[in-house]
């Protein structure tokens, strides 16, 4: 028998032995996948946005099956999706209130003054830590679009140096909230229509110097709303989103700077 044939037979035998070993080891160390996890993951939106608090839909599905999470934790799922997931898990579906992000600032390039020409990294955290951004208000939107880039659903756009959230596109994943170094972005009920687009606690006179649409602390909106709906945090009005006022408050308050309104 020639050397070539012997080599071929040897290789074939080795491959066969290795194949058997791999098969045996695979069966010994095989991890059985719960079919309920697979069906649950298939019912999830597959956005992998992390808004549920888990790394992705796969991890969330495992947590649901293990009863370590609730279907309503998914910000992307519709009520119909939640019912399907709950039915698949054999649990009662819970209705959830839709939450959306909102940027509580109205200072764009036209209404807020500029103090410097910023030429650094186009990132809000970088601008805040190095030069504080180019706008005069130390509490306003930095306008570097970090939140827009972080949004997986394209719900945020920049208009004149101000981040604007489109509520019809926002699913409430909260990714944008994490990116804002000035904590201007809040998750609020989608049904809430009244917002104060200012977050500066400074006195009205100081704010007016740097932003024409800032809250001057006149308290007109507080007086126009029911008790507990709008309160003052130092010199800025704050909406209580657990007991938010009706849109009629906007007209009744007659805000002199138009910083309390329905939308940006």
Assembly annotation: single chain
Radius of gyration: 27 Å
Task: Indicate the CATH architecture of the largest domain.
Answer: 2-Layer Sandwich
Mean pLDDT: 89
| CA distance, first residue to last residue | 87 Å
The helix tally amounts to 10
- Main sheet summary: 2 strands, antiparallel
Q: In CATH, what is the class of the largest domain?
A: Alpha Beta
Query: How much of the sequence is in beta strands?
Result: 5-15%
Taking strands numbered 1, 2, ... along the chain, how are they ordered across the largest sheet? 1-4
Structural class: alpha+beta
Q: Approximately how much helix is present in the residues?
A: 25-40%
How would you describe this structure to a colleague?
The chain is elongated and about 100 Å long. Strand 2 and strand 3 (162-165) form a beta hairpin. 34% of the residues lie in helices and 11% in strands. The longest helix is centred in the N-terminal third of the chain and has 26 residues, at 3-28. The chain is α+β, with helices and mostly antiparallel strands and 264 residues long. The chain is built from ten helices and eight strands. The strands form four sheets. A two-stranded antiparallel sheet has the order 1-4. The chain has a two-stranded antiparallel ribbon with strand order 2-3. Helix 2 crosses helix 3 and helix 2 (35-43) packs antiparallel against helix 4. It folds into two domains: 36-89, Electron transport complex subunit B, putative Fe-S cluster (3-methyladenine DNA Glycosylase II, Chain A, domain 3, Orthogonal Bundle); 99-261, 2-Layer Sandwich (Alpha-Beta Plaits), CATH 3.30.70.20.
């Amino acid at each position: 028998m020639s050397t070539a044939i012997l080599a071929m037979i040897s290789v074939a035998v080795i491959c066969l032995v290795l194949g058997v070993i791999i098969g045996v080891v695979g069966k010994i160390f095989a991890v059985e996948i719960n079919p309920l996890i697979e069906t649950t993951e298939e019912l999830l939106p597959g956005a992998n946005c992390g808004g549920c608090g888990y790394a992705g839909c796969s991890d969330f599905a495992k947590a649901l099956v293990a009863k370590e999470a609730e279907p309503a934790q998914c910000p992307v799922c519709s009520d119909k999706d939640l019912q399907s997931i709950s039915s698949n898990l054999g649990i009662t579906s819970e209705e959830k209130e839709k939450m959306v992000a909102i940027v509580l600032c109205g200072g764009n390039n036209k209404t807020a003054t500029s103090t410097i020409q910023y030429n650094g990294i186009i990132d809000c955290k970088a601008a805040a830590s190095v030069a504080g951004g180019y706008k005069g208000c130390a509490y306003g939107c930095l306008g570097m679009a970090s939140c827009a880039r972080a949004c997986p659903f394209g719900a945020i756009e920049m208009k004149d140096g101000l981040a604007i959230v489109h509520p019809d596109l926002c699913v409430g994943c909260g990714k944008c909230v994490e990116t804002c170094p000035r904590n201007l972005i809040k998750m609020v009920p989608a049904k809430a229509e009244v917002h104060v687009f200012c977050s500066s606690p400074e006195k009205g006179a100081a704010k007016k110097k740097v932003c024409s649409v800032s809250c001057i602390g006149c308290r007109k909106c507080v007086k126009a709303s029911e008790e507990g709906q709008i309160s003052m945090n130092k010199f800025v009005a704050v909406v209580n989103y657990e007991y938010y006022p009706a849109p009629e408050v906007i007209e009744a308050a007659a805000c002199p700077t138009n910083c309390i309104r329905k939308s940006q």
